[in-house]
Amino acid sequence: MAKEVDSIHLLSCAIEASLGNDFPAFAFRLPGEDGFYWGACEPDRLMTLADGVFPERQEGFFFAPFEEGELPRYFFPVKIQRAEEISLEALNYGAGQTLANLEIKPVDSSFEQYEKQVNTLVAAMSRKEIKKAVLSRTVTLNRPVVSDGQLFFRLAAKYDSAFVSWVNVPGIGRWIGATPETLLDCDGVSLTTMALAGTRKAGAKEPWGQKEQEEQQIVTDYISKVFRDKGLEPIIGERFSRKAGQVEHLCTPISLKVGSANGRLAEILSVLHPTPAVGGYPKELAMEWIRRVEPHERRYYGGYLGPMFGEHVRLFVNLRCMEVDDSRLRLYVGGGLTDKSDPESEWKETEAKAQTLLSIINGYK
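RE: above sequence
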């Protein structure tokens, strides 16, 4: 217990040092683990990567936006430390120019606006223009008197099966989240991912509805096709209900045969992301509709992030996340639509997903 308290104290101090001295940094807790990890670098060492480039077999942390080309893709080329290994004396970065982060301004949709957005997308599906689209919205709040570190640790304590993260990129902003979705886990021998879609209240006893099953099957079929089109034969696991805070999702694990993905991560990521779990299907048409209908930019919501331990790469979809500044919090939540979607039900689904973060935030009010 003393070691855990000490690591939390060290990591809290490191997070505050990053904010006070304005240097790039990240912290995370892996699903099902107890320990925390940290990394930081001088501002001029933070790498901005071209679209389609992925730094395989390196150590560091990757942070990518929802849409390539809209915002930078970042790689922190640093040694990832366990929290108890942090040396606060070594955190002397940030001596250069301070970059102002973007101020968070409300762009939230009312229910009436959201209803129109849903109806527009459902009409496109009824005309067979697209089969599925994920519609997101934002919830902007005045920030309670609480530190980034407190929010991060509260999320980690409450959601032990999530990838919990905090990322600070000067000039871009800070992001905190607790995502249930793995995009890619490759250890140099095998690769696994998941088709995660369909949402309902956690612990429901009745069978899953047709809409949710169809929505999730679209994701499974898409990922399987992406792999097969690249000459990779996927192994499809059994579908199950995966709890994520106040809700649960349908989840199908998908893996590749041993060694078949070696040296091909950049290629696989370029076609895999965004899956229909965060974008839609067909991908390009659904993305066009999302750009047309959503009133906000997704930025790094729905993008992906995660650690790279040399051969072992673990990337997660940036869901159940919020963008933060010193005065406001902007939560991002979304839901998959099909031609069977009802605006009121979809709104309630996003409210339930928002509780992943609101249940933590409201504890400080």
